Amino acid sequence: MLREARVYDNMWACGFPKPNSVFGEVSRRALRSKTVENVKTELRAKLFQDREDRYATAVRIAFHDCVGGCDGCINRANPDNAGFMFESLDVMDTIYEDKYKLQMSRADFYILTAVTALEDSLKFNNDNLTQHFISPVRFDFKYGRCDCSTSPGTPVTRAFPAGHSDYQQVMDFFREEFGFSVRESVAILGAHTLGAASGAKGSGFEGFWKEDGVAADRLNNRYYSLLADDALTWENTDRSVVTGYGEERWQWETGSTSDDVPAPFMLNADVALIRDIQPNRNGKSSCQFRDCSLSPSARIVQEFASDGDTWMREFAKVFERMVAKGANQLMYPA
Q1: pLDDT in tens, 89-115
Q2: Per-residue pLDDT averaged across 240-258, rounded?
Q3: Which residues lie across from 134 on neighbouring strands?
Q4: Which end of the chain has fewer surrounding CB within 10 Å, N or C?
């Protein structure tokens, strides 16, 4: 009874309807494990089937929702939110509105979608793959987050780390926003092992963080091994020269796909984890990759590059911390 009372208090504080014992009104007072599994099944059928590229956008949506506090609200007018993720967000919101809005908050639904994406992208990595096999880990899901009053939209513009950020700016952001240590910040940025930059229609940066689109659908530690690979030649290049984007977009490239999409590529925020690049205000590095001295977190990158299982265990823990921001009394489904 005490646990149920806490659940009621938390749900009522989020503006959920109080249970009506007379009329049997449906309320989001307690989330059941069966409902969680039903959501995962539906996401796999309607969001992720034959669209493994959406693993990355689901994780990105969770991050963008949790900056400032996970509240089920995304500002579509914020340029930092532009790009591939709106297509996934539309599908997610439709699934939620059609079936689950009386059973959980939208914020919880977004996090559950990201958890499903992480589980499936790790499985996708390990199926028929040995070189970058990662021992399976558990991605815990807890519920009890509150939606903002205007969910799913918001006029609030939240600040995100810029692609041209240097080492200190990256570390300051994650420390101030989530209370992460340097090691935790390096671990969470491993999410860039999934997906691609959004190009001219989004951030202006363009490319896959790994070798191609298929590699970019696999959750593994390849992001770190690419950064730590001394055999690669990384060139600091202004991508706006190719895309016609209205501002300089300095990024790091060491190859391309058959369609001439940079792959692998890295942002300054990525390279700064291993090299002290010290970019200027437009993002151009003060040195070429091999000439730059090692950054303070270089040893962590090298460790994660050589031990994917350690990275995955730490990533799962720091991800759980990130998606708890702004919530009180999160609980496991019954």
Answers
A1: 999 999 999 999 999 999 999 999 999
A2: 93
A3: none
A4: N
Which three-class secondary structure string do you get for the chain?
CHHHHHHHHHHHHCCCCCCECCCCECCCCCCCHHHHHHHHHHHHHHHHCCCCCHHHHHHHHHHHHHCCCCCCCCCCCCHHHCCCHHHHHHHHHHHHHHHHCCCCCHHHHHHHHHHHHHHHHHHHHHCCCCCCCCCCCCCCCCECCCCCCCCCCCCCCCCCCCCCCCHHHHHHHHHHHHCCCHHHHHHHHHHHHCCEEEHHHCCCCEEECCCCCCHHHCCCCHHHHHHHCCCCCCEEEECHHHHCCCCCCEEEECCECCCCCECCEECHHHHCCCECCCCCCCCCCCCCHHHCCECCCHHHHHHHHHCHHHHHHHHHHHHHHHCCCCCCCCECCC
Give me the residues paired with residue 197 across strands: 207
pLDDT at residue number 20? 36
pTM: 0.91
Cβ neighbour number for residue 46 with a 10 Å cutoff: 14
